[in-house]
Specification:
This protein is an alpha/beta fold and about 200 residues long. The protein has a single domain, classed as Pyruvate-ferredoxin Oxidoreductase, domain 3, CATH 3.40.920. The chain has eight helices and six strands, in the order E-H-E-E-E-H-E-H-H-E-H-H-H-H. Strands 2-3-1-4-5-6 form a six-stranded mixed β-sheet, sandwiched between helices. Helix 2 links the parallel strand 4 and strand 5. Helix 1 crosses helix 7 and helix 6 packs across helix 8. The chain starts with a strand and ends with a helix.
Length: about 200
């Protein structure tokens, strides 16, 4: 069984990323369970999406929620939210996070400074997290809305998804409008390339 958590704040494309993985797993004949938890505001509040699916010859999952200390992969769109999700990380799990910070609603309301630097440093020290420069991918793709595909590409490059690139690409074609398909494919490839340097070295 594979357990993957996507987390971040509302409006970052987290739900699309989780749907992409779930669709690709379904297309490969896996048993899939998924659930989202959405915070105080859909846009700006904390979002966590759980995706669980069977592996070839593996057990099927009954629950949609990933248990504590069981995630094979945490894919975070925001470093502070990655820290919040760490109790779900398995002993040999991998954390990938976007480098850019999104000011949480609570910090914005309190006018508290937050730039994500402490969270990034903690993640790198505590679990060797990969901090991905998604902003450079967005510049290359000329869109700020491809962070989710850059992170999906990085997740694929870890080898932990256990899903083929062909299945992920086919699922992308089902979920993304044709006008935006090539841009999202480019972001996926760039994210995979950036992460691949880490796991191939």
């Amino acid at each position: 069984m594979r357990n993957v958590i996507f987390c971040g704040v509302g409006g970052q494309g987290i739900v699309l990323a989780s749907k992409l993985l779930a669709q690709a797993a379904l297309d490969e004949g896996r048993t899939v369970r998924a659930a989202e938890t959405i915070g105080m505001a859909q846009r700006g509040g904390s979002v966590m999406s759980h995706v669980r699916y069977s592996t070839e010859g593996g057990e099927r999952c009954a629950s949609s929620l990933v248990p504590a200390h069981a995630a094979d992969l945490i894919v975070s769109f925001e470093p502070g939210e990655a820290v919040r999700a760490l109790p779900y990380l398995g002993t040999d799990g991998i954390v990938i996070t976007a480098a850019a910070a999104q000011i949480p609603v609570t910090a914005a309301l309190a006018n508290s400074p937050y730039d994500g630097s402490a969270a990034r440093a903690y993640l790198e020290g505590a679990c060797g997290a990969l901090v991905l420069d998604c902003e450079s991918v967005c510049r290359s793709c000329k869109s700020p809305r491809v962070v989710n595909m850059a992170l999906m590409g990085a997740a694929f490059a870890t080898g932990r998804l256990g899903i083929s690139r062909a299945s992920l690409d086919a699922a992308l074609g089902k979920l993304v409008k044709p006008a935006f398909l090539e841009m999202n494919r480019m972001a996926f490839s760039l994210g995979a390339e950036m992460a691949g340097r880490r796991w191939q070295s």
